Amino acid sequence: MKPELPRGHVLLHAGDLSQYGLFDEIQAQLDWLNSQPHLHKIIVPGNHDLLLDPDFVKTHPDRELDSIPGKRYRDLRWGDVKCLADSYTEIVIGQQILTVFGSPLTPRCGNFAFQYEPDTDVWHNKLPDNVDILLTHGPPALHLDKDKGVAVAGATGNLGPHIVNALIAAKHPVTILTRQGSSNASKLPKSDLITIKEVDLTSVASLTPALEGVEVVVSVVASASAGSQNPLIDASIAAGVRRFLPSEFGSNTVNPKSEQLPVFQYKVETRKYLEAKARDHPGFSYTVVANGPFFDWGLQVGFFLNPAQHSAVVYNGGDVKFSTTTLASIGKAVVGVVAHQDETRNRAVYVQDALVSQNQLIQYAKEVDGKEWQITNKTTDETRAQAFEALKSGPAPENFGAVLVTFIYSSVFGEGYGGNFSAHLDNDLLGIKPFSDDEVKKLVASFL
Hints:
Layout: E1 10-13, H1 23-34, E2 40-43, H2 54-59, E3 81-83, E4 87-93, E5 96-103, E6 106-107, E7 115-116, E8 133-136, E9 150-153, H3 160-169, E10 174-179, E11 194-199, H4 204-210, E12 216-219, H5 230-239, E13 243-245, H6 265-280, E14 285-290, H7 295-301, E15 311-315, E16 322-324, H8 327-339, E17 347-350, E18 354-356, H9 358-369, E19 374-378, H10 380-393, H11 397-413, H12 427-430, H13 437-445
Parallel strand pairs: 1-2, 2-3, 5-8, 6-7, 9-10, 9-12, 10-11, 12-13, 13-14, 14-17, 15-19
Antiparallel strand pairs: 4-5, 16-18
């Protein structure tokens, strides 16, 4: 197409000189541009101009774009046309000197030239100062403004609704995966951003179509058996999901001592499965979220102390500092991971609302109501040894869960088990503001 152009001093072309990126197409457009009377002729390539992208040519040798003698990139006759590819030029119009910066970059959509991932900020520190004219091929759409679809499996437990609420507050479309025939959907928040899909969580064939168009998958399902999350991981890869958050959300299972605890066996196996899949599939990645014990839930059910009963089992003297996070803040951390996928790729992230000790929390409770506490002192070395003995003898089914929970206390309070995250926190990155002492006191008081 060669339209009749109005006269002027400057002719700007924003890319796609061709349909198929071939030499003859591009040269024909250059010849036409050179035939125009404009004093300055400036272009940026477009995503269809394959021959003009050296990286695309190099990674797609099968296209034979730059292999025909006389019709290679270096054979193009540019004439008076200036081509800008993340570069600038100065032009003189009368008494004015104008700086023109041009970029061919386009958010990825298909397999074309000059593309970048939509969630990557390629523009930071790229433009020189005092640019008068910015000429780009890619439109603003998809550049850091794509609604990242997130799927949540296990959304009806203690933590799941808080993750869903945080995602909705951040305006992310949420697909909730529920087991076929489940009656728990009524527990979920109501929002136009939510889509509920019934699936077989053990079937890749059932899960894959449900994950089409999803960018991030968050698993909050109970890891009750070996490989229980593998079908969800495999389906995520098949559907083109970019990020997977496994059902961790607790202790530091990356810690060498904690990962040896039997209670975390399936979580560790899942993480290693993810590591292997991420190596084999470069477009797929994972993030493990470590947040310590749930702060509010732990106070409610008496996990690390029981404010309602004014009683506690105090481990290792009670002064051990441990990281703990509320359910709502864990939801915010998930939103932070979705927003910062480059920084959180294939690693564990660590968050906390507070770094506290059992004795500190008990003292706060006493300051509120003045009541004395019933304290039982134990050591994690003692309780861990007892738990291993119980596993050897085969505990009764009704006691098996309690035995496993005993190991969690070692991961929180045991020396060297990584329960204190303060040396490697990701709070700032993920948008988690730590609690003040007053906020910690108020939380404890709310459960007295």
